[in-house]
Design a protein that fits this description.
- The chain has one domain.
- Helices cover 70% and strands 0% of the residues.
- The protein is mostly helical.
- It contains nine helices and no strands.
- Helix 1 packs antiparallel against helix 3, helix 1 crosses helix 4 and helix 4 runs antiparallel to helix 6.
Length: 217
């Protein structure tokens, strides 16, 4: 392995560390809002936590992201993954459909907020001449926004599909049946160039807006 390949893999592993942290906050957002909406299922399982171990999914958090690094290290900037879904008991919710949507959207909203916060840190890093810090925060901000928009795709078990379930009135039994094949569907969708183009457009547009808001050159 030459030095250039080694540097690319190291950068990929740094991105992987950021991915794990961002996924942890994503699932924490789901669990915290579920608790606020009256469902303590996630809390009883220790999921209202910022401990990454509580949220790791063997395939989505470990296997797939690491394969993306070592098999195609140049695409680590667009690394994706998912964590173990937060359990929600709809019977504990006061307003079933509304609260289900709030809990579902809490994950992408958390990633959006983290993206905004990280862009603010980019500005701080540039002001105090810590370019390496600014570059790292910029990378993690882009990754956080990727997780935000990727999870809005309406394919089980991604968050967008749970919102779509409520909108079209699909039963939970049917939804969970479809979710059994969700992993395959997500893999297939990832092979569609137009999906990556749409995600890149959404991320780039949001980053451009945030750069203007924070005065980032």
């Amino acid at each position: 392995m030459d030095a250039n390949t080694g540097n690319v893999i190291v950068n990929g592993l740094i991105s992987y560390l950021g991915l794990v942290i961002l996924l942890t906050f994503h699932e924490f957002g789901h669990a915290w809002v579920a608790l606020k909406c009256g469902d303590d299922t996630a809390q009883r399982q220790g999921r209202v936590s910022l401990n990454p171990i509580m949220h790791i999914d063997p395939i989505g958090t470990v296997l797939m992201p690491l394969l993306m690094i070592f098999m195609s290290p140049n695409i680590s900037r667009f690394m994706i993954g998912w964590a173990k879904p937060v359990p929600v008991d709809l019977n504990n919710l006061g307003h079933r459909n509304r609260d289900d949507i709030l809990i579902t959207m809490a994950g992408p909203a958390m990633n959006l907020l983290l993206g905004i916060g990280l862009m603010a840190l980019v500005r701080v890093g540039l002001l105090v001449h810590l370019e390496s810090m600014a570059e790292l925060c910029l990378r993690f901000a882009s990754l956080s926004l990727l997780l935000c928009f990727f999870n809005l795709i309406p394919i089980p078990p991604l968050d967008g599909s749970r919102v779509m379930r409520v909108v079209i009135g699909m039963s939970y039994e049917t939804y969970w049946h479809l979710s059994r094949f969700g992993f395959i569907a997500v893999i297939l969708v990832m092979q569609i160039p137009q999906v990556w183009q749409a995600l890149s457009f959404a991320i780039g547009g949001t980053m451009a807006v945030l750069e203007i808001l924070f005065g980032i050159p």
